[in-house]
Amino acid sequence: MNHRPLTRPEQKARTRQTLLDAALALMEHRSLSSIGLREITRAAGITPAAFYRHFPDVDSLGVALVDQCLGSLRATIRTVRDGLSPSDEVISRSIDILARQVHDDRAHFRFIARERHGGVSAVRAAIAEQLDLFAADLAVDLAADKMVGGPRFDRWIVADLRMISNLIVNHMVWTAAALLDAPPDAPEAAARVIDAAGRQLRLILLGARQWPTEP
Amino acid sequence: MNHRPLTRPEQKARTRQTLLDAALALMEHRSLSSIGLREITRAAGITPAAFYRHFPDVDSLGVALVDQCLGSLRATIRTVRDGLSPSDEVISRSIDILARQVHDDRAHFRFIARERHGGVSAVRAAIAEQLDLFAADLAVDLAADKMVGGPRFDRWIVADLRMISNLIVNHMVWTAAALLDAPPDAPEAAARVIDAAGRQLRLILLGARQWPTEP
DNA sequence: CGATTCGGAGAACAGGTGTTTACTGAGTGA
DNA sequence: TCACTCAGTAAACACCTGTTCTCCGAATCG
Q1: Are the beta carbons of A58 and A84 closer than 8 angstroms?
Q2: Which of B6, B21, B110 is nearest to B64 (CA)?
Q3: B2 pLDDT exceeds 50?
Q4: What is the pLDDT of residues A22-72, one digit of tens each?
Q5: Is the Cβ pair B206, A204 closer than 8 Å?
Q6: Would residue B10 count as lying in a domain?
């Protein structure tokens, strides 16, 4: 165990993280705008006034939380997808990976789903920005023709690529929300959601294969 | 003008509606769980104590709001869809109708989108229930083969019908939310959303046409 | 007409809220 | 080592919250 005294930036980063974690935990049953500054500091074990050393207000903490959640998730998904060989059964694997991520990080996904159209506009904007990055990533992957046996995405015009990647990203977000609505200790309910989501994704890609490509 | 004194149930129903409207108006920039009972009564012009004559708490008001919003919307959509002759261009017409509804009733749709995954579980459940009814309606229409030139929905198994109607309902909710995110006085932004949504719906139906039907 | 119902008013309750202020004391760079 | 930086403390500020109580007065009913 390393018990050396923490350097000052380390200590600051640590309590900042404690604040973020406390806020995330409080948001399991409520939304960001209904959580008070004092409530967060109480859960984090610091004084209300000390909050201002880290964030100007609760909304800014929310934005930071978005960047942390979706930033790390994007990195995770990137590495996972790079490891996917084109010979895999892409659809069911993708949904399974999503389900696993949601299961391992319920709080993060719940936060995103809850605040995506929630009451704090700065947080909404931050989420929309990150989801746009997800869609851009996905469009690149589609253009790279990773979906073996699928349509020839590389011949598509850019607008159509964005159209379908937005559709898929939205479907993923909705799937995550549906998984969260299912009770965590009911594997059969989650399994039904996963099965339906897989069929829906398959249907979407079936439609994409038939989508008229323009020269 | 009818200035006769209102009967007692009429008066009660009127202030109840005033409460619902006041709450809906307050939710333009914030979510339900962050709105206080006193705030609602202040906006409605009544005493805090009088609130309890209508609802036991704010959450129950939220549930009533869901029923009112989605109940009337369901009726509207039903009549609209019954009036659609199969010869119309169904897809673009559907999206246009949705866009018009959203434009005319921004507050209602914003409420639904915001609270669908929001912090009040009773409201979430009420919304999920109503959306399920929407999906059931849609499944019936699909089975009735109203989509001319489309796939033979009447030969599908029930599970697949639900799967695709859920997908379409979700797409509609997301489209409504996207329209709300676009500034109300920017017709070109809304037009882009409408165009993209139409193409996505077309792609989904294209996939449905190819979906393997089982005997 | 008289008795009763009941939506709403008004005041009081204990407790929570965000923000500012002056202060402490440990880590830090010259 | 010594002056300094700065994360965190403690207390006070004015204000807002949900809930309960008693009371009023007009619509209602026998």
Answers
A1: no
A2: B21
A3: no
A4: 999 999 999 999 999 999 999 999 999 999 999 999 999 999 999 999 998
A5: no
A6: no
Q: DSSP secondary structure string, B146-161?
A: -STTS--GGGS-HHHH
pLDDT given at position A146 = 60
Q: How confident is the model at residue B66 (pLDDT cuts 50, 70, 90)?
A: very high
Residue B137, domain extent:
58-210
What CATH code is carried by the domain that includes residue B146? 1.10.357.10
Calpha distance A118→A88 (Å, rounded): 37
Distance CA A175, CA A160 (A): 22
For residue B81, the model assigns a pLDDT of 79
Distance (Å, whole) CA A181 – CA B177: 20
CA angle B168, B171, B176 (to 5 degrees): 130
Instruction: Give chain A positions within 8 Å (CB) of B122.
Output: none
Scored b (16 or more CB within 10 A) or e, B79-90 reads: eebeeeeeeeeb
Q: Which residues on B lie below 8 Å from A157 (Cβ)?
A: none
Mean pLDDT computed over B46-69: 98
B→A interface, C-beta within 8 Å: 27, 29-31, 33-34, 113-114, 116-119, 121, 124, 128, 160, 163-164, 166-167, 170-171, 174, 177, 180-181, 196, 199-200, 203-211
SS3 content of chain A, % helix, strand, coil (to 5): 75, 0, 25
A48, amino acid identity: P
Q: What's the number of domains chain B is made of?
A: 1
Model confidence over A145-203: pLDDT tens digits? 665 555 667 677 889 999 999 999 999 999 999 999 998 889 999 999 999 999 999 99
Q: Does B174 contact strand D, using a CB cutoff of 7 Å? A: no
Which are the contacts of A65, defined by CB distance < 8 A and separation ≥ 6?
A: A20, A23, A24, A111, A123
Q: For residue range B113-132, what is the model confidence (pLDDT) as tens digits?
A: 999 999 999 999 999 999 99
pLDDT at A1: 46
Q: How far is B185 from chain A (nearest CA, A)?
A: 18
Q: Tell me, yes or no, whether A87 lies in a domain.
A: yes
* CB within 8 Å: B171 and A170: yes
Answer yes or no: is B137 within a domain: yes
Q: Are the beta carbons of A138 and A169 closer than 8 angstroms?
A: yes
Residue A133 lies in a domain: yes
Chain A residues within an 8 Å CB radius of B163: 196, 199-200, 203
